[in-house]
Amino acid sequence: VALRLQNYSSMPMTFDDVALALTVGDSDAGTLQAKPGISIGGTSADVINVDLVPSSAARLVVADALAGNRTLAYGLKGTVAATPQEKKQRSFDISSRSTLNQAPGLPGVLR
User: Fold this and answer.
1) Long-range pairs for 48-52 at CB < 8 Å and ≥24 separation?
2) CB 52 within 8 A of CB 34
3) What is the pLDDT of residue 47?
4) pLDDT tens digits for range 14-50
5) Which residues, other chains included, contact 34 with Cβ-Cβ below 8 Å and sequence gap of 6+?
6) What's the confidence (pLDDT) of residue 63?
7) How far apart are CA 71 and CA 53, in angstroms?
8) One-letter-per-residue 3-state SS of 15-70
9) For the whole model, what pTM was predicted?
């Protein structure tokens, strides 16, 4: 999974730990866990790759969306720990829902 980490702060932050439960449709897909250890400048973002072995129910939901050329609803819920420059680590609660769309001209790719 390509996971975009967004730093909404005006100061650089080092992203230390990511633990996010992923749902696709109404199915639990698994947990995205990583210790990226990357610094992201203020009001910037970066992308990390996280390995995920999805549940069988999630695989079916994704396959159905791809076969029917439909969008795929997903949700992320959990925590991200980050350390502001020269300060103490903080943990941020994340709860987000969005959709992925089929990439034009790239069969089997959702963005």
Assistant:
1) 48/2, 48/3, 48/5, 48/18, 49/1, 49/2, 49/3, 50/1, 50/3, 50/18, 51/1, 52/1, 52/22
2) no
3) 98
4) 999 999 999 999 999 999 999 999 999 999 999 999 9
5) 3, 17, 18, 48, 50
6) 94
7) 21
8) EEEEEEEEEECCEEEEEEEECCCEEECCCCEEEEECCCCCCHHHHHHHHHHHHCCC
9) 0.90
Other CB atoms closer than 10 Å to residue 37's CB: what's the count?
10
Residues 53-69 as b/e (b if ≥16 CB within 10 A, e otherwise) read ebbeebeebbeebeeee
Per-residue model confidence (pLDDT) at position 45: 98
Which token pair is 91? 């943990």
65 phi, psi to nearest 5 deg: -65, -40
Q: Pseudo-torsion of CA 53, 71, 107, 50, nearest 10°?
A: -30
- Cβ-count burial 23-34 (b if 16+ within 10 Å, e if not): bbbebebbebeb
